[in-house]
Amino acid sequence: DCFDGASITIPNTITNVETNWGKNVVSTYVSTPNNEKFLLNKRNQENTLDPNTKIIGPSLYRFSEVSEIKGSDNKVEYISEYAFAEDNYLFKLPDFSHLIGIQKHAFSNCHGLDEFTFADSLKFIGENAFEGTGLKEVYLPKGITTIEKNAFINSKVKKIFLEADEIPETF
């Protein structure tokens, strides 16, 4: 388990993260020990997650113009801090059915994001994780243990449904 509620450690299977800045293009590559590269072009309208992706890294889509992330067969367990923050175009995400943790500000100010499926495996939602989103209703799973302060502040949330038997720890 690489998530301790305060930080994320990139597993040693990732050997390199490289960002290239060019005219009108920002490209980020993640490399594995087999020299396989996974390209994320932040200027695309949509991106498809590699099925073996387990962590969406810090600020990876921050300030991007990506409107849709595809990859219904993904294995994402952790969404890092500021991963999608300030993406005013983002409105559609796949279900993250293996998701365990969402760090602080992961989706802050993604105004177009009005739906998010919270996986049954989810344990942790970080501070300001969904600040300023378009979410209107939130259905939290039974296993959630921690929701940090202001997780849904300045969002459009009107109702929160909690399946847990006990109220999660809140800072």
Average pLDDT confidence is 79
Largest sheet: 5 strands, parallel
Helix run count: 0
- Compute the gyration radius: what is it? 16 Å
Percent helix: under 10%
The tally of beta strands, per DSSP, is 12
Task: Measure the end-to-end span.
Answer: 22 Å
What fraction of the residues are assigned to beta strands by DSSP?
25-35%
Order of helices and strands: EEEEEEEEEEEE
Structural class comes to mainly beta
**Strand line-up in the sheet with most strands:** 5-7-8-9-11
Overall, the morphology is: globular
**Unreliable segments of 5+ consecutive residues:** 1-11, 20-25
Written overview of the protein:
The chain is an all-beta fold. The chain is built from no helices and twelve strands. It has strands at 16-22, 25-31, 37-41, 46-48, 55-56, 68-70, 78-79, 101-102, 124-125, 137-140, 146-147, 159-162. The strands form four sheets. Strands 5-7-8-9-11 form a five-stranded parallel sheet, with no helix packed on it. The chain is globular and about 40 Å long. The model is unreliable at 1-11 and 20-25 (pLDDT under 50).
Describe the structure concisely for a colleague.
This protein has strands at 16-22, 25-31, 37-41, 46-48, 55-56, 68-70, 78-79, 101-102, 124-125, 137-140, 146-147, 159-162. By secondary structure, the protein is mainly beta.
Q: What layout of secondary structure does this protein have?
A:
Blueprint: E1 16-22, E2 25-31, E3 37-41, E4 46-48, E5 55-56, E6 68-70, E7 78-79, E8 101-102, E9 124-125, E10 137-140, E11 146-147, E12 159-162
Parallel strand pairs: 4-6, 5-7, 7-8, 8-9, 9-11, 10-12
Antiparallel strand pairs: 1-2, 2-3
